[in-house]
Amino acid sequence: MRSGGVLGGGVALILVLGVACASRSDVSGLSGSDPSCRTASPPCPPVAAPSTLGSEINDSAGFKLEPPDSRQPLIDASEAMDLAWKEGVEATSQQAILALVPRGGSFKTDTLVWLVRYEGYCAVPIGPPRGGHNPTCYMQPYFTLINAETGEFIASWTRPP
After folding, report:
1. Is residue 75 part of a domain?
2. Is residue 21 part of a domain?
């Protein structure tokens, strides 16, 4: 069953590291004693309340996401959003959604994750103009997966316009 509520429809595209997922080297205020992206410059976008994935999603980026099991995350939603934001996305809002990536593929065990969903991401078009106009960006959702047990970055992706 595919849910359009969290990831939405369309084809997902894993972005190339160094282009859309480059770490923020220009962020100040994110060193050891102050890990919050809210106090960094520039600050991260406004935060929606964390939630839990309600139904299974087979994302076209290659991830199967399921509702989480009974384990509690070692990394909280706020920490996950701080870590995801350092990957370099600019957006108008963000929300952390607790989910489970089941064992399979590159995942040796069931892995508890935070799916950080950004709204208002400005994807810069690549290629020739479409339909006689050349927009400066396409506003769309952007997603980052953070391991909820270790805090490790897993992947970031968005859909093509």
Report:
1. yes
2. no
Cis peptide before 42 (omega within 30 of 0): yes
Q: Please, what is the average pLDDT of the chain?
A: 75
Q: What pTM did the predictor assign?
A: 0.71
Bridge pairing between strands 13-14 and 153-158: antiparallel
Single-letter code of the amino acid located at 78: S
How many Cα atoms within 13 Å fall on the side-chain side of residue 159?
A: 15
Q: Worst-scoring range by mean pLDDT, 25-34, 61-70, 134-143?
A: 25-34
User: Can you give the residue range of the structural domain that contains 53?
Assistant: 44-158
Say if 7 falls within a structural domain.
Answer: no
Rg (CA), the chain: 16
Domain count for the chain? 1
